[in-house]
Write a structure and sequence with these properties.
The protein is built from eight helices and 17 strands. It binds 2,5-anhydro-1,6-di-O-phosphono-D-glucitol (AHG) and manganese (II) ion (3 copies). Its EC number is 3.1.3.11.
């Protein structure tokens, strides 16, 4: 093996030596999740050849019709983590309630939350999709595990990451001391460190939002996007570009790679919901990664990772990416209150 290449295992062992907060159980957990993502990537890459496309004709707790790959990816992650001894319980976008692992041995101290397949609307059209995960410590010392154990603010995360199934299969991780990226070497089946200490530029000319919702946005979002669209002649004095993949993983990966701002704000379509994206297993892990890469992540009025959750599947308005742009759109929200 080319000794210049650093494998995920070597990275985790070296990281554990340097940072006492990375316990052996946490290292094992990340190795297990990384292996599960490899397994999911194999199913994703089969496409029409593997009976993985199309709808599962079932509905999840979000009220979404599940895709076959939503269900497959969820099962892969549950099965991979069930017997590792490192977890107390798991929670998933695709499961109504938590899944407590069988504890015929000392219970693990970690809680794993995941969006097993993010960007489901892109599965059948061969556009990048991904898996998002968040790791919390079980802080209560009572024997059992309940949903309440999961209701911790994002700043309590022990680790977070995602795997993007795109032209490359790339695993992106943080333990709170920077962001590292690992590319899957399909020939050897190993994850190879391809970027470390990722940094998001503070400024950008690229925004990501679903423009078809424009007529439903609140004024501060409308103001921010109108100014971007006004280009050089407008108050921003520069032209902007727009991207919207409709897979949060792909949009966030682009932002971690070259900067940008991602907005999925509250809108009038469902005024009683704070937003579309889920706090615990989409917004929090992505916010952790983005902040660790020097960016910002707010819900328009507060830091996403400061939000105290009240429900496992609660939703949130999301603005994240290049810190000066997120600050600007957040300032517009605060000026409007
Ligand atoms: P999921 O597929 O896990 O339900 O998440 C989809 C989310 C997110 O990935 C993406 O940014 C957003 O939905 C796209 O929403 P629109 O289709 O409304 O643009
Ligand atoms: Mn979904
Ligand atoms: Mn998602
Ligand atoms: Mn999903």
């Amino acid at each position: 093996m080319n000794d210049k290449r650093i494998s995920l295992t070597r990275y985790l062992v070296e990281h554990q030596r340097e940072h006492s907060h990375i316990q052996p159980q946490l290292r094992l957990l990340i190795e297990v999740v990384a292996r599960a993502c490899k397994h999911i990537a194999i199913s994703v890459n089969k496409g029409a050849l593997g009976e993985v496309l199309g709808s599962a004709d079932t509905e999840n707790v979000q009220g979404e019709v599940q895709k076959k790959l939503d269900v497959i990816a969820n099962e892969v992650l549950i099965e991979a983590n069930e017997w590792g001894g490192h977890l107390a319980a798991m929670a998933s976008e695709e499961m109504d309630s938590i899944h407590v692992v069988p504890h015929r041995y000392p219970q693990g101290e970690y809680l794993l939350l995941f969006d097993p397949l993010d960007g489901s609307s892109n599965i059948d059209v061969n556009v990048s999709i991904g898996t998002i995960f968040s790791v919390l410590r079980k802080v209560s010392n009572h024997r059992g595990v309940s949903e309440e154990d999961f209701l911790q603010p994002g700043k309590q995360q022990a680790a977070a990451g995602y795997c993007v199934y795109g032209p490359q299969t790339t695993l992106v991780l943080t333990f709170g001391d920077g962001v590292a990226m690992f590319t899957l070497d399909r020939e050897t089946g190993s994850w190879v460190l391809t970027q470390d200490q990722v940094q998001i530029p503070a400024d950008t000319k690229e925004f990501a939002i679903n423009m078809s919702n424009m007529r439903h946005w609140a004024d501060p979002v409308r103001r921010y996007i109108d100014e971007c669209l006004a280009g050089k002649e407008g108050p921003r004095g520069k032209d902007f570009n727009m991207r919207w993949v409709a897979s949060m993983v792909a949009d966030v990966h682009r932002i971690l790679t070259r900067g940008g701002v991602f907005l999925y704000p509250w809108d009038r379509r469902e005024p009683n919901k704070p937003g579309k994206l889920r706090l615990m297993y989409e917004a929090n892990p992505m916010a952790f990664l983005v902040e660790q890469a020097g960016g910002q992540a707010t819900n328009g009025t507060q830091r996403i990772m400061d939000i105290n959750p009240s429900a496992l599947h609660e939703r949130v308005s999301v603005m994240l990416g290049s810190k000066n742009e997120v600050q600007r759109v957040t300032d517009y929200h605060q000026a409007a209150t």
